């Protein structure tokens, strides 16, 4: 459980975002060890949490010393994200879906960043939006329709092809900058996006897209 002071700082992020102000001090918030304990508690039971990345490191062996080492490397700029290990899983239509498996330390950093971003953006999302949000799902969308809708003229069902692998990094960062002015925090997210992936032991740079199987995707599907 996070201490009251940290909870107040996290809650304040949403209040500031709702006021239309840009946020700073996010990187400093990551320096609090208890935030990392909360991040570990969020993801350690996820399917694949103990699956190793390219360096063989998993979430197993969580400790204060490990957290202190990650925080120290983030602060002095020496932390480097590992390329994700790309594997493929079959889809229902017979095709294959690429999944990216991150190093254990990278998963922790990703979850801390996700926690902070959720505190910023969740309070400003429309209440009618149910996709990829905590506590929401197709079931809550149907409940909302039943309670609020009185008639239907038309509905649109669409799927964005290869969405995760084609997200433009520049556009994503520009959108984040509309709410965030913490340069170190933004650079950390950029470094995640630029980490690349390893497939058949061959490195591939990433100029667009985010890996399916990342912390954000896993948490979204479980909520």
Helix content: 40-55%
**N-to-C series of helices and strands:** HHHHEEHHHHHEEH
Q: What shape does the CA trace take?
A: globular
Largest sheet: 4 strands, mixed
Mean pLDDT: 88
Characterization of this structure:
The protein is an alpha+beta fold. Helix content is 47%, strand content 9%. The protein has helices at 4-18, 26-29, 33-43, 64-76, 104-121, 138-148, 163-166, 169-177, 183-193, 215-222, and strands at 84-90, 96-101, 197-199, 202-204. It has a four-stranded mixed beta sheet, with no helix packed on it. Helix 1 packs across helix 5 (104-121) and helix 3 (33-43) crosses helix 5 (104-121). The longest helix has 18 residues, at 104-121. Mean pLDDT is 88; it is low at 217-223.
Core attributes:
47% helix; 223 residues; alpha+beta; single chain; 4-stranded mixed β-sheet
Brief overview:
This protein is an alpha+beta fold.
SSE topology:
Elements: H1 4-18, H2 26-29, H3 33-43, H4 64-76, E1 84-90, E2 96-101, H5 104-121, H6 138-148, H7 163-166, H8 169-177, H9 183-193, E3 197-199, E4 202-204, H10 215-222
Parallel strand pairs: 1-3
Antiparallel strand pairs: 1-2, 3-4
Helix pairs in contact: 1-5, 3-5, 8-9
């Amino acid at each position: 459980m996070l201490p009251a002071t940290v909870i107040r700082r996290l809650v304040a992020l949403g209040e500031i975002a709702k006021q239309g102000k840009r946020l700073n001090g996010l990187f400093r918030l990551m320096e609090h060890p208890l935030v990392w304990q909360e991040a570990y508690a969020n993801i350690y039971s996820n399917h694949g949490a103990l699956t190793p990345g390219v360096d063989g490191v998993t979430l197993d062996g969580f400790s204060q010393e490990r957290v202190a080492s990650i925080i120290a490397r983030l602060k002095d700029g020496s932390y480097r994200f590992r390329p994700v290990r790309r594997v493929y899983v079959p889809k229902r239509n017979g095709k294959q879906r690429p999944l990216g498996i991150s190093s254990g330390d990278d998963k922790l950093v990703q979850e801390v960043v996700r926690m902070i971003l959720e505190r910023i953006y969740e309070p400003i999302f429309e209440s009618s939006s149910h996709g990829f949000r905590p506590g929401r799902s197709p079931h809550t969308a149907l409940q909302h329709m039943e309670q609020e809708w009185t008639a239907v003229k038309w509905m649109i069902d669409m799927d964005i092809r290869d969405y995760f692998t084609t997200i433009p990094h520049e556009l994503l960062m520009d959108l984040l900058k509309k709410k965030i002015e913490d340069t170190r925090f933004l650079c950390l997210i950029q470094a995640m996006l630029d980490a690349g992936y390893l497939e058949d032991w061959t490195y591939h740079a990433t100029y667009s897209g985010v890996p399916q199987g990342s912390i954000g995707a896993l948490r979204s599907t479980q909520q």
